[in-house]
Specification:
The complex is a heterodimer. Chain A is an alpha+beta fold. Chain A has 13 helices and ten strands. Chain A folds into two domains: 92 residues; 240 residues, Bira Bifunctional Protein, Domain 2 (BirA Bifunctional Protein, domain 2). Helix content of chain A is 42%, strand content 19%. The longest helix of chain A is centred in the first third of the chain and has 40 residues. In chain B, a hairpin with a 7-residue loop joins strand 33 and strand 34. Chain B folds into six domains: 69 residues, Phenylalanyl-tRNA Synthetase, Chain B, domain 1; 111 residues, OB fold (Dihydrolipoamide Acetyltransferase, E2P) (Beta Barrel); 192 residues, Phenylalanyl-tRNA Synthetase, Chain B, domain 3 (3-Layer(bba) Sandwich); 66 residues, Phenylalanyl-tRNA Synthetase, Chain B, domain 1; 201 residues, BirA Bifunctional Protein, domain 2 (2-Layer Sandwich); 88 residues, Ferrodoxin-fold anticodon-binding domain (Alpha-Beta Plaits, 2-Layer Sandwich). The chains are: A alpha+beta, B alpha+beta. At the A-B interface, helix 5, helix 6, strand 1, helix 8 and helix 10 of A face helix 7, helix 10, helix 12, helix 13 and strand 30 of B. Chain A: It catalyses: tRNA(Phe) + L-phenylalanine + ATP = L-phenylalanyl-tRNA(Phe) + AMP + diphosphate + H(+).
């Protein structure tokens, strides 16, 4: 009897030692089988309980079952220990250098050209005021570019526009590259009855080349025609536009009488700014004036060319350089770089593809 | 147009300051471009040298004691040889900036002697190049007062930018009239008394234009005998110099002076050099004249000249001839005041490339009624400065001026500007500007003065009233907006253009804006070069042809970047190309290129895997992305092998919708194309015709189609077919998909293999077929049957057999 007990102690000590020394899950499993398997040493002990007398069973039963429970627990504990160690070892083995660079997503690399972005900004503002966008061809006729816009034949005003001409076509007509977006005014009047409320962005061409002039540039023009639109309305539209575009709460503007063949009266507009800091222009503050656009009441002759009676209809128009206002707002120093496609310039001055200008989310971020 | 303040005040009696005048000029439409208030000369005062002693340590220096007018003489060290006791000159105190030597003076020691200022030379004040000595003024020059004021050098110079519609403001008198009308003073000096002559002008003038339209509308001439031509008075020379003209001699200076003073160009001939009578006529073809600028000009019958019996003496209204110009020896002078056809002057000036103050005024339109008074004014000045005896005037061809009368409803001011200007004030403004309003009704007849050829109608009068009343008095009025939420405002083409831009930028490409005109050889390489798309006056030889494609501009841009060391670039542009000169020939195209290793996922070397060279499939993916952004039905597009001639014939494709509509091309480029463009490197590109994508159908509802999700598990099955090399993968996948349109949800190609084991002209195409049961889970027999149909259909359509 004591012999059995002492055997149990020996067995337990031996099993516990084996469990403790097991280095991996396979060994543990082998120990489990050798102890608790069908022919395991502890199982064998348990089997002997059936042939014992009740008294003996009462004495030895708890001892053998106790052994079984302790071995089972020890096995589970050691197994968990080994599993944790194995995971830890795997995690260490799997460690990588997270400072290695990842590739930038294409959407982060791509860029929208400032001309497109600023055109979208302009569109967002005028859309809010009920304007739509009109477009027209770059190659124009003398009629649409000059005659219908009240440029008298050979008048010095035509010389203000250094025009590119194309070789005469098969029909002998000499076309030209439009010097302004104004031909679209006439094309719109021909196609649509008032009320008209459009803005016209597009490419324009003049023979000119220096830091602020390129032979191709971009203009945006506006046209309002109805039965009441006047200079006071025009002031409101332009002041609202300039505030919204330059994203300032207030902005002083100076309207100066001027001359354009296609408007009467005609005005040029300067905006208040501060240019005292090198390389930077701040709008809505300061004591400098910067010329930004030309405008006026549509000339009666232009209305007539567009098929409208100037005593019934009236309206105003204005025009400005998209490239120029982009330079003013975003600070590009040289217009020529706009057309050079240097990817360093595009990356720096361009806009991220998902930065869509809206009024509700802000024109620029 | 430049003038000085004192000159303006000859015509304008005013107490206004320079600042007020400048501000008013701009606000009434005579934009001030620059003002030189001569502040640079303010520090210089008249001072007298009291004593002059030799410098103890320098032979060429003297130590002066100078009276600067404040009672306490200052010590000045001076090196000028003419410095002496009693000299009166121009003194600058310490702190003054000396423009001629770009230095601000300080108290200094020169060879041990302190110097408290400087006696200046003309060069140091930038008055001239004179530097042999210091300024030496008359002894009675008032010590302590401004040197500039004394010397007449403090007259501020104002420059205004004139718009082409204001010939009246090419004269200082006209500018003064505008200022006076705006309430800034009183206009003076208008009347010019005629000067009686003695006897007829012996030289007769004939306007001879034959049957052609006359180019001269009046000609006035007068001879002044016995003049003595020398320098003009100092005040006149100073004014001419101030506005940038070089004084020549009194006779010439008078014509230049009146050109600016009154906007009336004149010409003077040396009568001794004129032979016989004068004829005003068209030049003969090839006729030549040596002009006053010493250039010889060859003329055409479209140009008007003044000729004597020997030949041309003047290019009418533009520049006189050298031969009969006036110099110091001139004793008899012919003064001409004429009216020339403005359009003809503009054209002649442009063709000859001559820009003169006379042309500037004649092409804008001078005051016809001032032709004779201008001659009178010149005569008076000639007599005053040079003496002599004038003949009577010879005036030919002038029919008089018929004034324009504009019927003007005064309410137009309110209608067009929103300004409430009382009728009386409106009419008063017009009167002050020289208009004559007549009548008391709501509509008045307004007579336009002869100096305002630009005024044609009601709107012009509104502008006059608006600019003089004050533009700043117009309060902004909101433009009544539509009384509803704005509907979509962009057209389909505008929406697609924007969408294509953003879609391509999202693919890592950068948007470029390139020139619409490209070199002729580039245009020709891309199907362009038509004669009617060539500029007749390109700004540069390599900007001569309207582009037929955006590709050459983008490829050239990529090469420029590569030349700067940036070889992996992806660029795109969505813009116009030109197939002809008509409006409908301008296309809207989305075009992109990739160079080097500029792939979608990134470029260049990377630890996780290097990017390979770009190729046809990168371009294809870009093209399809652009098309999808434009709303093209991507699942219905067909891809055909081979693009236009500028592409690599074996590595390019055409994207079509139906048999006729070409939506785009993509591919790598033909080696010959790259040679023409002089570029290198892996390159691919695409062109997508945004304007060819069909308009979307009008939708009666925004509801999306019902979505049916099958409850049965989807499965994938792989097949490999051996086909002839020429068989296109697209045909094979179409054949597989057509085997059972209901069950097969998709077919993709996952491997292409070519090898000797298959035979030289064979290839293996491995496809993965996605099967989506919709009614029941498929049994093994069902799959067998479906696989059989796929194999059969592929064999039937392509000749492909299942690979063993």
């Amino acid at each position: 009897m004591n012999e059995t007990i002492s055997n149990l102690d020996t067995l337990e000590a031996s099993l516990m030692a084996e469990i403790a020394s097991a280095a991996d899950e396979q060994t543990i499993e082998a120990v489990r089988v050798s102890a608790l398997g069908k022919k395991g040493s502890v199982s064998d002990m348990l089997k002997t309980l059936g042939s014992m007398s009740p008294e003996e069973r009462q004495l030895k039963g708890p001892a053998i079952n106790g052994l079984k429970n302790r071995v089972t627990e020890a096995l589970a504990a050691r197994k968990a220990e080994l599993k944790d160690a194995a995971i830890s070892a795997r995690l260490i083995a799997e460690k990588v250098d997270v400072t290695l660079p990842v590739r930038q997503s294409p959407a982060e690399r791509g860029r929208i050209h400032p001309i497109s972005q600023v055109t979208d900004e302009i569109t967002a503002i005028f859309a809010d005021m009920g304007f739509s966008i009109a477009e027209g061809p770059d190659i124009e006729t003398d009629y649409y570019n000059f005659t219908s816009l009240n440029f008298p034949e050979s008048h010095p005003a035509r010389e203000m526009h250094d025009t590119f001409f194309l070789n005469p076509g098969p029909d002998g007509e000499r076309k030209l590259l439009r010097t302004h977006t104004s031909p679209v005014q006439i094309r719109t009047m021909e196609a649509q009855k008032p009320p008209i409320r459009i803005v016209i962005p597009g490419k324009t061409y003049r023979m000119d080349s220096d830091a602020t002039h390129t032979p191709m540039f971009h203009q945006v023009e506006g046209l309002v025609i109805d039965k009441t639109a006047n200079v006071a309305n025009m002031r409101w539209v332009l002041e609202e536009f300039c505030k919204a575009f330059f994203e300032v709460p207030s902005l002083k503007m100076r309207f100066r009488p001027s001359y354009f063949p296609f408007t009467e009266p005609s005005l040029e507009v300067d905006i208040q700014c501060d240019r005292s800091r090198p390389g930077e222009v701040r709008f809505g503050e300061g004591n400098d004036w910067l010329e930004i656009l030309g405008c006026g009441m549509v000339h009666p002759n232009v209305l007539r060319f567009g098929g409208l009676d100037p005593d019934e209809y009236q309206g105003f128009a204005w025009g400005m350089g998209i490239d120029r206002i982009a330079m003013l707002k975003y600070g590009m120093p040289d217009l020529r770089a706009f057309f050079d496609a240097d990817v360093r310039w595009l990356s720096h001055y361009g806009f991220r593809p998902l930065d869509l200008p809206t009024l509700f989310g802000g024109l620029s971020s | 147009m430049k003038f000085t303040l004192s000159w303006l005040k000859d015509h304008l009696e005013t107490d206004a300051t320079l600042g007020e005048i400048v501000e008013r000029l701009t606000s009434i439409g005579l934009e001030v471009e620059s003002v030189n208030d001569k502040a640079a000369l303010k520090p210089f005062v008249i001072a007298k040298v009291l004593t002059a002693q030799k410098h103890p340590d320098a032979d060429k220096l003297q130590v002066l004691s100078v009276d600067t007018g404040d009672g306490k003489p200052v010590q000045v060290v001076c090196g000028a040889p003419n410095a002496r006791a009693g000299l009166v000159g121009a003194f600058a105190a310490p702190g003054a900036y000396i423009p001629g030597i770009d230095t601000t003076l300080a108290v200094g020691k020169i060879r041990g002697v302190e110097s408290h200022g400087m006696m200046c030379s003309e060069r140091e004040l930038q008055l001239s190049d004179e530097h042999t000595g210091i300024i030496d003024l008359p002894a009675d020059a008032p010590v302590g007062t401004s040197f500039a004021a004394y010397a007449g050098l403090d007259d501020p110079i104002i420059e205004i930018g004139l718009t082409p519609n204001r010939p009246d403001a090419t004269s200082i008198h006209g500018i003064a009239r505008d200022l006076a009308a705006s309430g800034l003073g009183r206009l003076t000096g208008g009347a010019i008394m005629p000067h009686a002559g003695n006897g007829m002008c012996p030289i007769k003038v004939k306007l001879d234009f034959g049957d052609t339209p006359p180019l001269c509308h009046g000609f006035a001439l007068r001879l002044v005998r016995g003049v003595k031509n020398g320098p003009s008075p100092k005040w006149m020379q100073q004014r001419l110099i101030a506005i940038g003209l070089r004084p020549i001699n009194a006779l010439v200076d008078i014509t230049n002076y009146i050109t600016f003073d009154r906007g009336r160009p004149l010409h003077v001939f040396d009568a001794a050099k004129v032979k016989g009578n004068l004829t005003v006529r068209r030049a003969r073809e090839g006729e030549k004249v040596l002009a006053l600028d010493s250039w010889e000009y060859e003329l055409t019958p479209e140009m008007c000249v003044i000729a004597d019996e020997k030949g041309i003496e003047s290019i009418a209204g533009i520049m006189g001839g050298e031969h009969s110009g006036c110099d110091e020896n001139t004793t008899d002078v012919l003064i001409e005041s004429a009216l020339w056809e403005p359009l003809n002057i503009a054209r002649t000036g442009r063709e000859l490339g001559i820009i003169t103050d006379a042309r500037y005024r004649f092409e804008r339109g001078v005051d016809p009624e001032f032709m004779v008074p201008g001659l009178e004014l010149a005569t008076r000045m000639v007599l005053e400065f040079c003496g002599g005896e004038p003949t009577e005037e010879e005036v030919v061809g002038y029919a008089g001026h018929t004034p324009k009368i504009v019927s003007f409803p005064v309410s137009e001011v309110k209608r067009l500007t929103g300004l409430d200007v009382p009728k009386a004030e409106s009419l008063e403004i017009l009167s002050r500007l020289g208009f004559t309003p007549q009548g008391d009704a709501d509509i008045v007849d307004v007579t336009v003065p002869s100096w305002r050829p630009d005024i044609d109608g009601k709107a012009d009068l509104v502008e006059e009233i608006m600019r003089i009343h004050g533009v700043d008095k117009i309060a902004p009025q909101p433009l009544i907006s539509h009384e509803a939420v704005n509907a979509k405002i962009l057209t389909t083409l505008q929406i697609r253009t924007r969408a294509a831009r953003r879609a391509l930028a999202v693919r890592g490409m950068m948007e470029a804006v390139t020139w619409s005109f490209i070199p002729a050889r580039h245009a020709e390489a891309f199907g362009g070069g038509r004669p009617e798309l060539k500029l007749s006056n390109p700004i540069a030889a390599d900007m001569s042809d309207m582009r037929p494609s955006l590709l050459p501009g983008l490829i050239a841009a990529a090469q420029r970047n590569a030349d700067r060391g940036l070889s992996d670039v992806a660029l795109f542009e969505v813009s116009g190309t030109y197939e002809g000169a008509a409006p409908e020939d301008q296309r809207r195209v989305a075009t992109g290129i990739r160079r080097g290793t500029a792939k979608l996922e990134g470029s260049g070397r990377h630890w996780a895997g290097n990017a390979g060279a770009v190729g046809v499939f990168d371009a294809k993916a870009d093209a399809l992305a652009a098309l999808e952004a434009c709303g093209a039905p991507v699942d219905k597009l067909q891809i055909e092998a081979g693009g236009p001639a500028w592409y690599h014939p074996g590595r390019s494709g055409v994207i079509k919708l139906g048999p006729k509509t070409v939506l785009g091309h993509f591919g790598e480029f033909h080696p010959k194309t790259l040679e023409v463009l002089d570029v290198s490197g892996p390159l691919c590109g695409f062109e997508v015709f945004v304007d060819a994508v069909p308009e979307p159908k009008a939708k009666p509802t925004r509801t999306k189609p019902r979505l049916d999700l099958s409850p049965f598990q989807a499965v994938k099955r792989d097949f490999a077919f051996v086909v002839d090399k020429a068989v296109e993968a697209g045909a094979l996948t179409r054949a597989a998909a057509a085997a059972d349109k209901k069950l097969i949800a998709g077919v993709s190609v996952f491997d292409i293999f070519e090898g000797a084991s298959l035979g030289a002209d064979k290839k293996s195409v491995a496809i993965e077929v996605s099967i989506q049961p919709v009614e029941k889970t498929l049994t093994d027999e069902d799959f067998e049957a479906l696989a059989g149909r796929i194999v059969d259909n592929v064999k039937k359509q392509t000749g492909g057999v299942l690979r063993g």
